[in-house]
């Protein structure tokens, strides 16, 4: 028996595999780019949140100092009561000023009306 090689047929499977590999690599590249972008945004948000945490910690320290002063310093407590709550001591003289007019103009004094003519 003689062995004759089978007729050669074009290999159509090879271009399909090549296209699939190229498509897969392109998808991986897009996913990597999106992932790196998302990671950069997350790091920026983390920096922003860390700075806000530091600001909040500073505000907490400031408020704790105010609380300590209110607990220990009677002058501070009295000043806050007068300024924030409008409290007065017995015997204090209270002077109420008229509210400012819009535009910063002081109220104009009114002329006394003349008695009616007879």
SS field, number of helical segments: 2
Shape: elongated
The main β sheet shows up as: none
Task: Work out the strand percent.
Answer: under 5%
Low-confidence runs (pLDDT<50, min 5 residues)? Answer: none
Distance between the termini: 154 Å
Helix content: 55-70%
Structural class: mainly alpha
The arrangement of helices and strands along the chain is HH
Provide the residue-averaged pLDDT: 84
What integer value in Å does the Rg equal?
A: 42 Å
Quaternary form: single chain
Tally of strands = 0
Can you put this structure into words, describing what you see?
61% of the residues lie in helices and 0% in strands. With 118 residues, it is mainly α. Helix 1 (13-72) crosses helix 2 (74-85). The N and C termini lie far apart (154 Å). The mean pLDDT is 84.
